[in-house]
């Protein structure tokens, strides 16, 4: 058996056997194919190497280009920073010049109650902007009569109107071949140094066209009148604006801030109250440290803002816009039980209370206007319609006893009259007949 097995094994390895031949043929064939298989990878590696070299060259080029761009940006930033500093210095110099000019013209105006000053130094032209109507904004309107007969240096004036505790009126003057146009603020007696920072925009209108002047920023206090000496040529005025010797004029006014007007603060909301507060309200860079829950209790607006689903409810510091920081101070004082309302503060406080939907503060202001205020009937009626003070409105209407008194409370533009008030006044006028 073993010999047979050995024979079988040897037979399998016999070169003459078919399997052996197949193996030899296969081996020969593999030997013939090895050369192209080795050469192909070498060529591929060479191509990859070349591609890598090209990529490296491009990368170096890009790095160099990026470095140049970074260098240019750094240089541009340095130039911008230098320009910004230069502009800051220029602005500082301009502010000092304006301040000195304001002081000079103000001292001159103290000798003459109706002295008129030009605002050339504080002029800011912003024709593309729309003047903001939020905050302490109001409009003076008047139709001047007998304008064509106005002689050189003579003036015409509108009636005084009270807005935010101050008396305002418009003045026009013939200045040789031009019309001079001014905003007037009556000086407050028995008050020391004070300032009213104002932005105003004068306008003339007719059936043909409107003439809107530049926007001006100026300061009232020492000076009572500011305006434009050459607003429009007199000839053009008579051709395009004077209708039956009448001239329709308008000045839009925005009180930006005041100093020296409001009384001393009755309560602090600064950092001394930090430990008792859980949110900081910021108005024009001034910070108020207050309680979310206390504000939310009195104001649905603050309830939603501070405790609702808004992102602000998660913030520790929230910026408020469209109001004056001094008015907000007085608003908070009233919420905390202080007597902060007077003739100068009441309208500004109402503005804040109306914006933030605070019935308690609105009611306190209405009580002041009903019982203590010396404001004119026209001013009280205007406030009653603007802030929906129904008790005040009812009392004002009860005081109107003649057609003459009805005329006295009508605005220069009858279209500005509140629609609900028109019906009440019509009913009044009928009862007088």
Write a structural description:
Residues 45-86 form a coiled coil. It holds the Pfam family MATH. InterPro entries: BTB-MATH_domain_protein, BTB/POZ_dom, MATH/TRAF_dom, SKP1/BTB/POZ_sf, TRAF-like. Residues 277-336 form the BTB domain. The termini are far apart. With 433 residues, the protein is of the alpha+beta class. The protein is built from twelve helices and 15 strands. The chain folds into three domains: 60-109; 117-259, Apoptosis, Tumor Necrosis Factor Receptor Associated Protein 2, Chain A; 271-382, Potassium Channel Kv1.1, Chain A, CATH 3.30.710.10. Strands 1, 4, 5, 6, 7 and 11 form a six-stranded mixed sheet that branches. Strands 2, 3, 8, 9, 10 and 12 form a six-stranded antiparallel sheet that branches. Strands 14-13-15 form a three-stranded mixed sheet. Helix 4 (292-298) runs antiparallel to helix 5. It is 46% helix and 21% strand. The radius of gyration is 41 Å and the shape is extended. The longest helix is centred in the N-terminal third of the chain and has 92 residues, at 18-109.
């Amino acid at each position: 058996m073993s010999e047979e097995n050995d024979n079988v094994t040897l037979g399998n390895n016999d070169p003459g056997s078919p399997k052996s031949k197949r193996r030899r043929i296969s081996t020969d064939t593999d030997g013939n194919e090895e050369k192209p298989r080795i050469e192909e990878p070498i060529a591929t590696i060479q191509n990859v190497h070349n591609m890598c070299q090209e990529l490296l060259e491009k990368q170096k080029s890009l790095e160099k280009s990026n470095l140049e761009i970074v260098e240019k940006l750094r240089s541009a930033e340095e130039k911008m920073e230098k320009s910004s500093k230069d502009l800051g210095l220029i602005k500082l110099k301009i502010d000092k010049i304006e301040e000195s000019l304001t002081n000079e013209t103000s001292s001159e105006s103290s000798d003459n109650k109706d002295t008129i000053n030009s605002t050339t130094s504080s002029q800011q032209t912003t024709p593309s902007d729309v003047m903001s109507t939020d905050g302490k904004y109001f409009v003076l309107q008047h139709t001047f009569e007998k304008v064509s007969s106005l002689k050189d240096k003579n003036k015409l004036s509108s009636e005084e109107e009270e807005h935010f505790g101050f008396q305002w009126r418009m003045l026009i003057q013939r200045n040789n071949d031009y019309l001079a146009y001014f905003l007037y603020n009556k000086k407050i007696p028995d008050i020391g140094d004070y300032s009213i920072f104002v932005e105003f925009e004068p306008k003339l209108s007719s059936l043909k066209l409107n003439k809107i002047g530049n926007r001006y920023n100026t300061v009232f206090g020492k000076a009572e009148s500011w305006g434009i000496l050459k607003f429009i040529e007199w000839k053009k005025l008579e051709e395009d604006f004077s209708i039956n010797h009448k001239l329709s004029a308008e000045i839009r006014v925005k009180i930006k801030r005041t100093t020296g007007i409001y009384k001393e603060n009755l309560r602090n909301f600064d950092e001394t109250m930090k430990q008792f507060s859980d949110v900081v309200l910021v108005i024009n860079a001034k910070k108020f440290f207050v309680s979310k829950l206390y504000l939310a209790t009195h104001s649905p607006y603050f309830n939603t803002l501070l405790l609702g689903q808004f992102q602000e409810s998660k913030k520790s510091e929230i910026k408020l816009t469209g109001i004056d920081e001094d008015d907000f101070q007085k608003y908070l004082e009233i919420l905390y039980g202080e007597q902060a309302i007077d003739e100068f503060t009441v309208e500004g406080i109402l503005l804040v209370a109306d914006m933030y939907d605070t019935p308690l503060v609105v009611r306190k202001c209405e009580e002041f206007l009903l019982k203590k205020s010396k404001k004119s009937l026209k001013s009280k009626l205007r406030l009653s319609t603007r802030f929906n003070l129904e008790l005040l409105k009812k009392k004002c209407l009860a005081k109107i006893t003649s057609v003459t008194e009805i005329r006295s409370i009508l605005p220069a533009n009858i279209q500005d009259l509140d629609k609900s008030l028109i019906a009440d006044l019509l009913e009044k006028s009928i009862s007088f007949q």
